[in-house]
Specification:
By secondary structure, this protein is mainly α. The protein has 15 helices and no strands.
Length: 396
């Protein structure tokens, strides 16, 4: 068994690989399913609603977190393995379901698959909090999100190619097989359990959320993620409907976004450990406002690809800093619960608001004004960030 507690490189590799598997499934739910259902003749509003429902387990991370904390005596690794297997099983089952005939069962099975991803995610986060030092959390989050976005990029390219050449259902099958292969890695990692007792989760959680800083961070979390939630659903639809691109082209252009996020995540992780959380978040969100609004000029695939890539770079930078901030305010004794609540709130903004209502925004406002509103949502987030006071905004 490998002991990674004092080996930063192995820590980065472990958590990057786990997040890579999440990125693969994210590409399925945010790109492949969208285009698949549109090509099947399902309306844009219904497509984004289905995708929002499928991604709902990300919002419900506050449910999966307390379960893993309550049964902390079993450790984090066991829940990672169980979650990965459930995620893969759901992808295998939907291969046999026709969404035109059975859209509800199709959505439910994918929902359950994402429940598995939710358990994998909160357990990996809690494990990272337990074994990381404050001065390396920015870089660990950089590795995590580099893995996530690399998985998304690989998935967008690979699964779109598979979908166009041999069919969409084979892309689901390929994703499930890859997830199973990846979750083998934790089997060889030694896990030191911090306690064999059931935690008093509720009591500790109430104590943490009485703190003003925690409350402000909880408010900031959904607001700052609405922008990317809108863009991640609107841009593939924009490429399909307005630019009339094929699925392979959409997958190729979409892959530019996570590839740039990989770079941004690593850069942002290093910068946030060096200069502090708030300044990194503020600078890169400010730039994101400009480039999100600039999407109104993306009337060719070349311009769109450039802007999409820049937005991905900036998102990777500020997201690593945000996740490090979440870890800083999280009590390790309830790491899965508290951190999952903060990230669940982030997913409320990204998925519950951004993803789910993006189709309705397109119908009501058109693509151009939807791009402008996506930039506007950063304003309230920056206002809340200003009032967040950290006891120590870590600088190395």
């Amino acid at each position: 068994m490998i002991d990674i507690r004092e080996n930063s490189i192995l820590k980065y590799l472990l958590f990057a690989s786990l997040y890579f598997s999440e990125g693969l499934i994210w590409s399925i739910s945010s790109v492949i399913i969208l285009v698949f259902l549109v090509e099947e003749g399902i309306s844009t509003s219904m497509v984004t609603l289905v995708a929002g429902i499928v991604n709902l387990p990300w919002i419900l991370k506050f449910v999966w977190g307390p379960i893993t904390d309550y049964f902390i005596k079993f450790g984090r690794k066991r829940f990672i393995l169980m979650g990965g297997l459930l995620a893969a099983a759901g992808l295998f089952i939907v291969v046999f379901i026709d969404p035109l005939v059975a859209l509800v069962p199709f959505s439910i099975i994918l929902f359950l698959s994402h429940v598995g991803v939710g358990f994998l995610d909160v357990s990996a986060d809690a494990w990272a909090i337990e074994i990381s030092h404050e001065e390396e959390r920015g870089k660990i989050n950089g590795a995590m999100f580099a893995g996530l976005f690399l998985g998304f990029a690989v998935g967008a390219l690979l699964f779109s190619f598979i979908a166009q050449t041999i069919g969409y259902k084979y892309s689901f099958l390929a994703a499930g097989l890859l997830v199973i292969l990846i979750i083998i890695f934790p089997l060889f990692v030694k896990e030191i359990r911090t306690t064999n007792k059931r935690q008093q989760v509720a009591k500790l959680l109430i104590s943490e959320f009485k703190k003003k800083t925690t409350k402000l961070v909880a408010l900031f979390s959904p607001l700052v993620h609405i922008n990317i939630g809108i863009l991640m659903f609107v841009l593939p639809l924009y490429m399909k409907i307005e630019l009339q691109l094929e699925i392979a082209q959409i997958g190729l252009i979409t892959a530019v976004f996570p590839i740039m996020m990989i770079i941004g995540s690593i850069v942002g992780g290093v910068l946030t450990d060096k200069f502090g959380r708030k300044i990194v978040i503020s600078v890169f969100i400010g730039a994101s406002i400009v480039f999100s609004a600039a999407l109104i000029f993306a009337d060719t695939w070349q311009i769109l690809a450039v802007l999409f890539g820049i937005i991905g770079l900036l998102h990777g930078c500020y997201n690593s800093a945000i996740m490090a901030l979440f870890m800083d305010v999280t009590n390790p004794r309830i790491g899965a619960t508290q951190f999952s609540i903060l990230t669940s709130l982030a997913n409320v903004g990204e998925i519950g608001i951004g993803n789910t209502f993006s189709g309705a925004m397109i119908s009501a406002l058109g693509f151009t004004r939807t791009f402008l509103y996506s930039a506007w949502f950063f304003g309230p987030a920056l206002l809340v960030l200003y009032y967040i006071r950290l006891k120590k905004d870590y600088k190395k």
